Give the backbone structure.
Amino acid sequence: MLDEKICLVTGSGSGIGRASALEMARQRAVVAVSDVNDAAGIETVAQIRQIGGSAEYFHCDVEDSAQIAALVAQVVEHFGGLDVLHNNAGIQESFYTADLTVDTLPEAVWEKVCNVNLRAVWLATRFAAPHLRRSTRGPAIVNTGSTGAFNAYPGCPVYSATKAAVQALTKTTALDLAPDVRCNCIAPGGIDTEMVDRWRQAATDKEAVDRMIVSTHLMPRLAKPAEVAKLVCFLASDDASWINGSTHLIDGGSLAWRGSNG
């Protein structure tokens, strides 16, 4: 449980972020919802309040370091501290271009995805670290990675690279913030989110992508974001007090039989 912990979730206007924010609220945490899409973030807060939870919305474009610094400062000022940071905000190159191979991807798209998926994780951690160190309620960081950190997927040259880097950054963060703050990473497989759907829609052969996403799972379906949120909240909780610096697959068994090299 996350009783009374103050939790900040980036990219919580949809998908895994929204599901995690809702599950945190169900576990009696106080939730700072943040997103670049104000309408989506405000809707997450509304859903939390509908279930009797406590949440506030804070706008943040995580591509902007000044906005990340302001976000952390505003959350700490509003709630009086910070106990959990869930670095969840992420994008995929299919959002911005049809050129999705390593030799055609525009440089500007490479930089944008790197800024959001990797640089923002480091910056949010950097700005949050002093406040997390002061927490007396089992402070923790949970980063959202991907099975793309282990295997190459069509149309994901920079996304996969950033998620592999997030996994490495998780280990470094655990080392540098020990023993005060734990840091772990989740690595989801195919999840029924807007991001996965947009990746599918960008493909020239959508049926092939569908087969690739679902058929590798030992349970032949996409996961629900709420299933991933359970893992996020466990890693953020005191029940995971001896888990640190590790990456946790939540992929329906996909890599259990495919292995780490496809």
Summary: The chain has a mean pLDDT of 94. The two ends are 36 Å apart (CA to CA).
